[in-house]
Amino acid sequence: MRQLLIVGGRIIDPSQGIDMVGDLFIAEGSIARVGRNKEATPSEPCPVLHAKGMVVCPGFIDLHSHLREPGFEEKETIATGTLAAARGGFTTVCCMPNTQPPIDSEAAVEFIQSKADAEGAVRVLPIGCITKGRRGEEMVEMGELAEAGVIALSDDGNPVRDSRLMRYALEYSRLFDLFIIDHCEDTSLSEGGMMNEGWVSTRLGLKGIPAAAEDTMVARDIALAELTGGRVHIAHVSTAGSVDLIRRAKDKGIAVTAEVTPHHLTMTDERVMGYGWENKKASPLPLSCYDTNAKVNPPLRTERDLQALVEALKEGVIDAIATDHAPHTDVDKMCEFDLAAFGISGLETALATVFALVHRGEIDLMTLLSKLTFEPAKILRKSEMGTLKVGAAGDVTIFDLDAEWIVDPSAFASKGKNTPLAGCLLKGKVMATIYGGDISYRDDAMKLETARREVKSKT
Amino acid sequence: MRTTKQRETEPSLEVATWRRRHILDLDDFAREEIELVLETTDAMKEVLSREIKKVPTLRGKTLVTMFYEPSTRTRVSFEQAAKSLSADIINLSASGSSVEKGESLIDTARTLQALGADAIVMRHYHAGAPYLIAQHIEVNVINGGDGCHAHPTQGLLDLYTIREHLGTVEGVRMVIIGDITHSRVARSNIWGLSKMGAQVVLSAPPTLLPVGLDASAFPPIAVEQNLDRALEGADVIMPLRLQLERQKQGLLPSIREYIQRYQLDAKRLAKAKPGALVLHPGPMNEGVEITPEVAQGAQSVIEEQVTNGVAVRMALLYLLMGGAQ
Amino acid sequence: MPEKVILDEEDIRRALTRIAHEIVERNHGCDGIIFVGMHTRGVPLARRIAAYIKEFERAEVPVGILDIGLYRDDLPSLGLQPFLRPTSIPTDVVGKRIILVDDVLYTGRSIRAAMDALIDFGRPQSIQLVVLIDRGHRELPIRADYVGKNMPTAIYEEVVVRLKEIDGRDEVAIIRGEGQ
Q1: Rounded Cα–Cα distance for residues A59 and A62 (Å)
Q2: In sequence order, what DSSP letters do the residues of A21-32 get, joined into one string?
């Protein structure tokens, strides 16, 4: 089987610059034919999805997600996390190794892979730790991890504090063509901080994390990448300062790439005041303030930072959008702000969130989709992903650009209901996600027709 | 705010329309509300001047204090206030309670509500804690101090004390000295004083001043790092307690240098207006932010702040809980 | 709403003067008595009576003021508390005869609250009650010792006392309310 015909959709493939209405046929799990007007006719009966009025594009790739298994299954499992990914239009998820035990050995990598094969709704690519046990002291056996199948290394959750260690890791990684994802945070500056350091944190009496805590580490990593020739990828960029540094580094040809989350592209630190709060002169705090759903690391920053991130994404200074999906239980979040866990459950709202930028005219659809498909694939150096070229993986996402829906966390496939978007009206909805020719997720409104011999697609 | 009602059962009776459920910070108080609190405090002070300092007004009501952050003076002040109004009071502190057993804040508050608390006074290490429980329970919540964020009852008693001595708060110049970053008292005073038409000046070394104070989210605040300049023309001075840990945390090179530049001593006090009031939220580190001479001097109203504290808290309990629910 | 004036300025003056004489007579002089006027209109009434006594007895009787807001039990409205005004009793009440003064005696609850308050100040020898108008409908066993005028009323009627010190003129009126 593993066949599927998608008819009448608006096919957008940023890797080839295609934007046309037509049909797409997947056979044996790979892209077989793409074309207009009955060009893609199957030779035998196969399932058909009618995608008229919808966009059909390569399946999204998330470079940064926390699936929590093994060790924190109460927050998420590979099964529930990949289901959430499918609902969000993601056909590939790169999972971070801050599990318990962490992914720093072949056995741990194999655990992830076998779980993903057995229970995963989409493709899971494991990221290995940079250091043994994520303790920041000694490098892992990169060769072992590379052979086991990790696609990158990261101690995410923690920065790599020791610059000498980061230098050696970058140098050594060149043996295996692995890239290193760094969570850039100078903990001596950020220690005890709960949100962005700014007037909001002062107003709320909370200790802040200054933007400089990220900028200093980004500068360090860029300098080390230049020194060593290794590839560094900056996780979840959040400041205008980081953007400037990355821009200059790329101008110089240094091998640095970067990602940004949907929430950093659309929300500021004022969101901690509560949903719908408006900053009028000397206004009192609403009862809904200290909203732990807006507590995330790196924190939501200022409007100026947000604008810089959007510009950087358009320019290509930031290469990809990655969710940093961080599910937590209610117990972790329904408590005093200082004590709440950092993180947003973002897989299922990512697309609609970034679509706000498209709807507002700040970025065009093709560019945005490239940040979810072609660009992440490029960073992963997997040319068979993130594209609809013939022979590429049969990973396709179908979405309705204008469908409106209200975010209901209780309906999430993810165990993590922690989102600042609860109750919000979003525009843009995933209608179906196809992974290797199999339908991993299909919206109720999306009709699946089985076994059709001849297809007459109405244009 | 004040209406005169002609009712069938009683001749004209002036009632105070106090619609507030919680006292979390002074930022959402209207000026008239603050006036009402201060005037009600006058009546409560009279009760405290009697032989029998007790009235039956809140008989049958129960006040529960949840003090996650220990405090003797504020807790005892609320206790006095409740007892003076014949309310029952139950004191909970963090140690030895369900808190230590890991029961969540919200669950603890709900349990207390179910056990019959009419109002909860909470003091907590973490900013925002009273807002959190106010979202989940129906009884009145009074913030007795939450982290570095707010201490509204202290702000009100400071206002009352200033008004008592200077006649009004309008146009008063108040200088707050010291660790502003970590001070909830400073923040509540900024709100309370600005609402009543006073001018607030902050004086502190840069490491003890938080960022963003010039944002429009705050009322207008002046900052003068040189204390001698700041004190010129001051009507009211409040030195804040300097925790000795601040030096260990690296915010100051030494306590000695802080004393040299920021201690309120008689010489500095003389730079302010004659008769300027000296307040302190307590407890004092005598010899650090304030000299014993000034603390016990003629211009100090620190002890009166304590008495006024009980009266102000009586006024707040009366206004919150006094009507039939 | 229709209003009928029952007492005018002269009626009130005569009533108060008569009450002043009655007080001195029953108490065999002015020793050991204090007036306590109840907010709001009991206060000017108490002051006037004390002024009359000063005229014909040449004696100064102290006048205190009492607010019963902290002692009320009868506010049914949600979230409304009486606005508190100052209470000030100028001398020690222990062993004294207190003459409580109010404008209208109706259910008796205000007087009960006032007695609770006064006893909290100390143990007086006795408490006597002066009212300008007694309109009936007592809900507690309270009676006035000195009454300006007995005025039987219906429940839906309202008695309004106006005094120069507060309202600019002296009169007592009945207002017919809604209903029968």
Answers
A1: 10
A2: EEEEEEETTEEE
Q: Which single residue is written with the structure tokens 């309270």?
A: C142
Q: Is the pLDDT of residue C30 over 60?
A: yes
DSSP string, A89-143: TEEEEEEPS-SSS-S-SHHHHHHHHHHHHHH-SSEEEEEE-SBGGG-SSSB--HH
Provide CB contacts within 8 A for A361, sequence distance 6+. Answer: none
The predicted structure's pLDDT at residue A30? 94
Instruction: Give the pLDDT band of residue A257 (cuts 50, 70, 90).
Output: very high
Amino acid C79: pLDDT:
54
Q: Whole-prediction pTM value?
A: 0.90
**B17, HSE (Cβ side, Cα atoms, 13 Å):** 6
Chain A CB within 8 Å of residue B195 CB: no
What integer pLDDT is reported at residue C66 of this predicted model? 95
For domain A59-384+404-425, give the CATH number.
3.20.20.140
Q: Which residue has the tokens 């409304």?
A: C80
Q: What average pLDDT does the structure give for chain C?
A: 91
List, by residue range, all CATH 3.40.50.1370 domains of chain B.
23-151+307-321, 154-304
Q: How far is CA C177 from CA B9, C153, C180, in A?
A: 12, 11, 9
Which residue type sits at A426? Answer: L
Cis ω before A101 (30° cut-off from 0): yes
Please state, in angstroms and rounded to a whole number, the distance separating the CA atoms of residues B248 and A245: 34
DSSP labels for C14-54?
HHHHHHHHHHHHHTTSSTTEEEEEETTTHHHHHHHHHHHHH
Reduced to 3 states, what is the DSSP secondary structure of residue A439? strand
What is each CA distance from C52 to C17, C18, C127, in whole angstroms?
7, 10, 20
- Residue A428: which region, alpha, beta or left (left: phi > 0; alpha: psi -120 to 50)? left
Q: Per the CB < 8 Å rule, is B318 touching C88?
A: no
Report the top-level CATH class of B23-151+307-321. Answer: alpha beta
Which whole number is the average pLDDT over A149-162? 96
Tell me if residue C82 falls in helix, strand or coil. strand
* Cα B27 to chain centroid, rounded: 13
Instruction: Report the sign of the C-alpha dihedral through residues B249, B253, B254, B257, in that order.
Output: negative
d(CA A232, CA A234) in angstroms, rounded, equals 7
Instruction: Tell me the H-state helices in B143-219.
Output: 152-166, 184-195
Which chains, if any, share at least 3 CB pairs under 8 A with chain C?
Answer: B
What percent of chain C is helix, strand and coil (3-state, nearest 5)? Answer: 30, 30, 40
Q: For chain C, what are the domain ranges? A: 9-70+86-153
Taking any CB pair shorter than 8 Å as contact, residues of chain A touching chain B are 197-206, 208, 279, 281-285, 287-290, 331, 334-339
Q: Can you tell me the distance from the alpha carbon of B117 to that of B140, in angstroms, rounded to the nearest whole number?
A: 9
Between 3.40.50.720, 2.160.10.10, 3.30.40.10, 3.40.50.2020, what CATH number should domain C9-70+86-153 receive? 3.40.50.2020
Residue A39 has pLDDT above 60, yes or no: no
Instruction: Locate A267 and state its tokens.
Output: 């929300």
Beta bridge partners of A60: A90
Identify the CATH class of B154-304.
alpha beta
Q: Which residue of B has its CA nearest to A272?
A: B128
The domains of chain A are located at 59-384+404-425
Q: Pick the range with the lowest mean pLDDT from A221-225, A450-454, B39-43, B301-305.
A: A450-454
Question: What b/e string do you get for B79-105 counting C-beta neighbours within 10 Å, with b at 16 or more?
Answer: bbbbbbbebbbbebbbeeeebeeeebb
Q: Are A441 and A448 in contact (CB under 8 A)?
A: no
Give yes or no for B129 touching A (CB within 8 A).
yes
CA distance B87 to A51: 69
Cβ neighbours of B50 in C, within 8 Å: 120-121
